[in-house]
Amino acid sequence: LVVHALAELEHVRALVVHGEPGMDEITPEGSTRVAELVTGVIQEREITPEDLGLASASLTGLAGGEPEENAELIRRILEGNEHGSGRTACVLNAAGAIWVGEKAESLDAAVAVAEAALDSGAALDALERLKEATNR
Fold first, then answer.
1. How high is the pLDDT of residue 136?
2. What is the per-residue pLDDT for 31?
3. Beta strand 41-47 with 32-38: parallel, antiparallel or unpaired?
4. First CA to last CA distance, the chain
5. Which long-range contacts (CB under 8 A, 24 or more apart) does 71-77 make?
6. CB burial class (10 A; 0-12, 13-18, 19+) of residue 29?
7. HEC-encoded secondary structure of the chain
8. pTM of the complete model
9. CB neighbours of residue 130 within 10 Å
């Protein structure tokens, strides 16, 4: 329903996802139902992390903690010091945004862009610029 509404609104690219078990993002473990919209054409498929060149990562590694713990995990991911479930989830969902933003021609290529942003420090730099811009 959502992807069809986006098509009616003439979006050029969109990605609507449903990760198992009931996640509203691309899941690092198991499969994700994907509806891709490209210039009025909708394609539906299922993907797994392995389909995009990543190892599956346990959902238990995504369990949140206290805000300070969650912030520290995010910082470790952005610094390139976390290689577990959090990084896999971050890469997969960043790849979706990169693809929708037309910065990559496929989800596979977008995964490489996301990984490079983490590994090069560009993702952490973007966080620092955001903090500066918002005075936080």
1. 66
2. 97
3. antiparallel
4. 38
5. 75/124, 75/127, 77/118
6. buried
7. CHHHHHHHCCCCEEEEEEECCCECCCCCCCCEEEEEEECCEEEEEEECHHHHCCCCCCHHHHCCCCHHHHHHHHHHHHHCCCCCHHHHHHHHHHHHHHHHCCCCCCHHHHHHHHHHHHHHCHHHHHHHHHHHHCCC
8. 0.90
9. 10
Q: What φ, ψ does residue 101 adopt, rounded to 5°? A: -80, 5
The angle at the Cα of 21, spanning 127 to 85, to the nearest 5 degrees, equals 40
Compute the Cα dihedral for 96, 72, 61, 55 and give only its sign.
positive
Per the CB < 8 A criterion, the answer to whether 71 and 46 are in contact is: no
pLDDT at 62: 84
Using an 8 Å Cβ cutoff, are 52 and 92 in contact? yes
Two structure tokens written together for 79 = 């610094």
What is residue 81's predicted lDDT score, i.e. its pLDDT?
87
**Which of these, 53, 23, 30, 39, lies nearest to 100 by C-alpha position?**
39
Positions of the chain with pLDDT lower than 50, given as ranges = none
